[in-house]
Give the backbone structure.
Amino acid sequence: MLFNIPWNLSSNWTFAWSILPILLIGLEVTIKATIFGFLLALILGLPLALLRAVPFRIISWPTAVLIEFIRDTPLLVQVYFVYYVLPDYGLIFSAFLTGTIALGIQYSAYTAEVYRAGLEAIPQGQWEAAKALSLQTRRIYRDIVIPQAIPRIVPAMGNYLISIIKDTPILSAVTVLEVLNVAKIIGDRTFRYLIPLSMVGGLFLILTVISSVLVRYIERRLPKEGIPLK
Amino acid sequence: MKQKPIARFEKVLKKFGDNVVLNEFDFEVYPGEKVVLMGPSGSGKTTVLRILMTLEDIQDGVVYIEEELLWHEQKHGKRVAASNAHLRKMRKKVGMVFQLFNLFPNMSVLRNITEAPIHVLKIPRKEAIKRAEDLLEMVGMTAQKNMHPAQLSGGQQQRVAIARALAMRPKIILFDEPTSALDPEMVGSVLDVMRKLADEHDLTMLVVTHEMGFAQDVADRVCMFDHGRIIEAGTPQEIFTTPKEERTRQFLNSVINREDTVTAPTVQPDRDK
Ligand SMILES: Nc1ncnc2c1ncn2[C@@H]1O[C@H](COP(=O)(O)OP(=O)(O)OP(=O)(O)O)[C@@H](O)[C@H]1O
Ligand SMILES: [Mg+2]
């Protein structure tokens, strides 16, 4: 009895409690889409940044156009594109993969810019000193450039992580049952929208807060002016 | 000193766009020699060092290091532009100490010094560390070996940078105004290390500096630079006390006047903030 009838707060709480498990399933999809989309953006952004920086116009210019194109078209267009157009060319992905790939592509254009800025922030003198020591390019990137670029890159990447979280509802456009879509379906079936939608808002808030705490934690653990924490 | 030169410029042309910095430039440095380059700003001193360090290419003429072409190589009897492999091989003979130190801020002092010996010269880690520790002792930085560059003063950073360059055992070591970015009270410690180097090691040193006291003590030869040419060269005695050229006299006066007013602001060392 104690469980089923929470006194005069009555049905709202029961309702909320009863839909929570379904919403959490939706939340899991949201989290997965965020993680995969973010990882994809991190991975795709690096070659884009490097190709963009190649000193040959024939490579750097098309890359620049591609990056600009991705940035300037709405995410939804990319989602539809991957979902409806690519199957015509034999590339068929599940709705979830479609959405995640589109997220990853969209954000790779932003992460490319972050990588580029991070690399360009390395002073010329670092390259020259490394060259004067005859260090090979690969070694220079590995031991000098990347370790110095990472602390500059992490904060911006953290912002994009949070952005991606908030963009995941767009996957509902291709039938993915992420958390907002689930809430909307619950609303449609029960004609009670306030509670599921409020809960989704709350869940997103929790997600973004946890993410920013995590990002800030990582930021704090990174070396300051090259000095590692212990 | 009638040996073969360790570094030699022959009719070198260097320009940046239309700006001709070196033209028909001839210059030699002999093994074990300590040469000081002086001259007004923009006269091309840094450019000479950067060409030797392969940080700046040349448009005409040739440069030799130990009688071997630096910017060219012989292929099928023809002289062609040097390949990356050739440049990489030649570069190991030369070391450089920069005005702004350019230590790697993400590495400890010790690792700054061992990085290249381990990965370029393939010296076993233990041995590289041992050598680095010896060098740190020589430059008086043993206590700071586990610190990071941002925790050191400019003078300390420059001493580490000297140790880092020496760890590669270069045939010739280049110094580009190594004390000009330092607070006045730090200059002495760096010059002391360089004096010690000049005494202890049978090392060839090519130093761009306006520190006349240092040049007086250490230099075998002082070269006065102006507009990409050496207008006058000789022992410190000759250059400082009986300069022949009017331009030399003017320049030395300007340096001495600058030294009298030490309050002149110094360039802040780049700490890679
Ligand atoms: N990367 C570059 N691009 C264009 N011009 C350059 C470059 N580096 C040097 N120069 C020009 O070459 C000339 C010689 O410069 P350099 O740095 O060798 O002079 P310097 O004698 O070392 O002067 P300073 O005492 O100011 O260091 C100057 O006119 C300078 O403007
Ligand atoms: Mg200079």
User: Anything to note?
Assistant: Confidence is low (pLDDT under 50) at residues 262-273 of chain B. The first helix of chain B runs from residue 45 to 52.
